[in-house]
Backbone:
């Protein structure tokens, strides 16, 4: 198992001298990141006891086999850029995995990373205050005994002894910082769309008690899902929506 310590991670975080907090065990790196006064910081844990996913779900975070990281970032014009934070984060993770592993993975709207038809990474972005956001990223780095409900839907990265968790954390962090520093340039949306696995697929979108099924025809410049249904074309922004494939 490759060890996680801040000196090791620092070797791979090239762009900014941000403080790095590393924990053996924590409730949630997002929770801790939100308490920090730093404008930029990286929080990493070897395991989480209360890892959180979107829509109040739990994020399974066993020790030693995952990347559990949260970047607290100061986003210029945070309010205008809110729609782009989750898509930008998905691009940062996708690029890091593609570069280090040279594998074909895809982005499932809005910000899950898939290998084949199984999820390998999830992202939970949360506002901190009027200037900063926390971008929480969980990546299944290596094989772990999965609970029954995850067995058919989750996977892990391929084994590659030359890639460590510290390298992957560094690569993701560098990508995040680069993309954020280029805002309001949102040309990463082209990368996002070209690696999306939902465009051209039949999907079922659920928001609370409502469901919409149809063909996903595209993703808007702001990252909203465009779905052609029997009742017309809907533009769905990520908020509280879950998406399933129906093909
Ligand atoms: C999802 O799949 O719905 C999002 C999962 C996000 C998990 C990461 S792990 C690091 C950070 N801390 C958390 O509690 N959640 C995020």
Residues:
């Amino acid at each position: 198992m490759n060890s996680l310590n801040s000196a090791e991670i620092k070797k791979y975080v090239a762009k900014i001298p941000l403080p790095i907090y590393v924990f053996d065990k924590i409730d949630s790196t997002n929770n801790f990141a939100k308490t920090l006064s730093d404008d930029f910081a990286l929080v990493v844990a070897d395991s989480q006891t209360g890892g959180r996913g979107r829509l109040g779900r739990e994020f399974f975070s066993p020790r030693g086999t995952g990347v559990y990281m949260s970047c607290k970032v100061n986003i210029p014009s945070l309010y205008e850029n809110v729609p782009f934070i989750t898509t930008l984060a998905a691009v940062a993770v996708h690029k890091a995995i593609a570069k280090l592993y040279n594998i074909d993975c895809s982005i499932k709207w809005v910000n899950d990373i898939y290998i084949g038809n199984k999820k390998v990474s999830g992202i939970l972005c949360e506002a901190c205050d009027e200037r900063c956001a926390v971008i929480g990223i969980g990546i299944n780095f290596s094989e772990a005994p999965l609970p029954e409900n995850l067995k058919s839907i989750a996977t892990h990265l391929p084994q590659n002894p030359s890639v460590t968790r510290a390298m992957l954390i560094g690569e993701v962090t560098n990508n995040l910082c680069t993309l954020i520093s280029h805002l309001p340039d949102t040309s990463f949306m082209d990368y996002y769309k070209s690696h999306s696995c939902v465009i051209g697929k039949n999907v079922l979108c659920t928001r609370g008690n409502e469901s919409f099924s149809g063909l996903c025809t595209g993703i808007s410049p702001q990252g909203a899902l465009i779905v052609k249904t029997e009742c017309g074309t809907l533009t769905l922004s990520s908020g509280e929506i879950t998406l399933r494939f129906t093909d």
Notes: The chain has five helices and twelve strands. The longest helix spans residues 78-101. Helices lie at 6-10, 29-35, 78-101, 165-182, 188-194. Residues 145 and 151 are 9 Å apart (CA to CA).
